Structures are given as structure tokens and as C-alpha cells.
């Protein structure tokens, strides 16, 4: 039985605690938690509640720690947990910059412990199917990718209810680091790391915040194909539409369904080169696949984490994997800040220096609003 402690019992930490307490993670048990605010301990019978993280590390009696605290604490708390000898899972993003993400990977290797990241959207059946189609070669050579992910709408109260949200000091980013990091993770998981990125960001266009709330980006994939990505927290209802143009077919993913157009000739390139019809188009068939539900999401990641600790399965959601989406998001911001193309791998030192300069000039929000309603499940996409 893997004994788990959670630091941070806000909305996401409480959800993890509830899932563990309800026995949804076989082979894992919640034994302690750390939260500075008052906690209704009757919800978690037999669970030790600490106010100080160091006390929990020293006296919690756990094997692993889940970090469910604000983004700027993921690296320092995660590193401390790993160096103290605990397997550690951090919420997304894995850190605020790639250098710190690499620091977590190094700490995990040095301690001989696992470091995982909550990359829960990889459990979504729709995305798993897209990855299968791309990796199997079923679609053929990828020619172009377009992902419009603009249904991350957030009203002002989302930011003004917190001292750190929407600030460089607290989040080191906005729509990219907080919301669309999930989609960028799926992008890296399916298509791999881009060779280069050119991004245009609007900072505080829709909200009174320091960070980006609209992004348009062009990337070059490893095979030279173009990919475009757009996201926003200021549009409603917005879209979540992924398009893949490939040699053997054309795919559109939207509204929990895949529409796949397959060319009967087997290759669009071959048809283009050989047809004698000036305005001809290849014969094709359309296949629609629908998906119900979003998969196991957070529960699935925690199951894998516990199983990997016990040596029963491979860790699928590692810090190394989490660092990929973070690097792409950092590349987008670096490109926007410098008004130029940013190449991969990122110059981590340059990026961190620029981020530190912005963080130094950043201000946490004073007197955050306290009159707000949290419907946490509505935050998921």
C-alpha cells in the first residue's frame, strides 16, 4: 500500500484527497495532508493534518507527496519533497521554466525517486485515439496541423479572487501556463517537439492581468510541416478543434468526435502527381468515430503513479514529459517577448533571466476578492 500525503487542500487538492479517501486509487492510501487554512478534519478520518510542510515531511509517515499548491511553489516544494526522499507528483505546470523543470528531474534521479506531473488529459480517449492514428502511420506523412483551443473562457473574478493569478510573479504566464498547458502537452505527446516557434501574444487584452490571455502561434514540426495553435481566455463559447492534414487522410477532432476522410488511392501526393483531371479530387470515404466520457483523468494519473511506485507499471506521466509542454509554452512567450522566432531546444538561462526580470517588476494582487462561487468541475475541458 502506497501511503500518500497531499500539500494544498484547495479545489484540486481536495479532489485528490476525496478520490483517495473513496478508495478510487487501488493500492494507495491518504495518510496526511498539509493546509494552512482551516480544514474540516471530519472529512478525512485517520488522516494527519499539518499546517507546516516541513512538519509533514518529517512526521507524515507517507511514501509519496502530491503537490497541489499555486504554480510558483511547484518547483521549490517538489524539489524539497524529492530531496527528503519521497516520490512526488506535482500539478501542472511542472514548474515555471524549463531550467526548474530540469531541476526536478535532477532531484528525482539524485534521490532515486519518481517525479510525476498531472498530465490528466492524456487519459482522454479522443486524444489517445489521435495519438494512435499518428504513431501507427495510418494517416501517413503529416502535412499540416491546426489547433484552435479558445474555449478556456475565464471572467475577471477568476483572477481577482487570488493574489497570484494573472501575475508574472505568481504564475509566470496565463492562458499558456495555466489553461492550455494541457493542450500543449497533448500536442507534444502526439506530434513531438517543434523545431521552431513564432508566437504573438496579447497581454491583458480581456482582463486586468499582467500575463497573456490570447495567443496565436506558428510552429515547424520535426518533418518540416507547419502547425498553428491559438488559445484565449477571453472568448465565449470558443472552439476546441484540431485539424490534421496528412498524405493518407484528413482528420478533424471536435465535440468528442473524430471525422476522418481517407483517400481510396492511398496517397494524396500520388494522386496530385498522377491525375489527368485538371479539377479532379481523389475518391474518399468519411469515417466518424464518437467518444463518450473523458476517461479516468486525474484518477488515471494517480493510479499510474501508485502503480509505478510499487514497480507494477511504467510511469507514464513523468517530469520529463511535463517539461516538454512547459518548454513549448516558454518558447511561445520567448518568441512574443523578443518579437522573433524561438528555436528548440530553448535557451533556458536566457528565458529564466527574462522571466525573473518580469517577476521582479510584478505585483501580487492586494486584497483579493472574497465573494465568489467556485464550481470546480466546470473548469475542466
Written account of the structure:
The protein is of the alpha/beta class. The protein is 34% helix and 23% strand. The chain is globular. The chain is built from 12 helices and 15 strands. A hairpin with a 2-residue loop joins strand 11 and strand 12. The strands form 2 sheets. It has a 9-stranded mixed sheet. The chain has a 6-stranded parallel sheet with strand order 3-2-1-4-5-6, with helices on both faces. It has 2 domains: 141 residues, NAD(P)-binding Rossmann-like Domain (Rossmann fold, 3-Layer(aba) Sandwich), CATH 3.40.50.720; 211 residues, 2-Layer Sandwich (Dihydrodipicolinate Reductase, domain 2), CATH 3.30.360.
Question: What labels would you give this structure?
Answer:
381 residues; alpha/beta; Rossmann fold; Dihydrodipicolinate Reductase, domain 2; 2 domains; nine-stranded mixed β-sheet; six-stranded parallel β-sheet; 12 helices; 15 strands; globular
Domains (count): 2
CATH architecture label of the largest domain: 2-Layer Sandwich
CATH class of the largest domain: Alpha Beta
Note the main sheet. 9 strands, mixed
Beta-strand percent range: 15-25%
Element pattern in H and E = EHEEHEHEHEHEHHHEEEEEEHEHHEH
Short description:
The chain has 381 residues and is an alpha/beta fold.
What is the fold's blueprint, element by element?
Layout: E1 2-7, H1 11-21, E2 28-34, E3 48-50, H2 53-59, E4 64-67, H3 74-83, E5 87-90, H4 98-111, E6 115-117, H5 125-136, E7 142-149, H6 156-160, H7 175-179, H8 181-191, E8 196-203, E9 212-220, E10 226-232, E11 240-246, E12 249-254, E13 257-263, H9 268-274, E14 284-290, H10 297-309, H11 319-338, E15 342-343, H12 348-361
Parallel strand pairs: 1-2, 1-4, 2-3, 4-5, 5-6, 7-10
Antiparallel strand pairs: 7-11, 8-9, 8-15, 9-10, 11-12, 12-13, 13-14
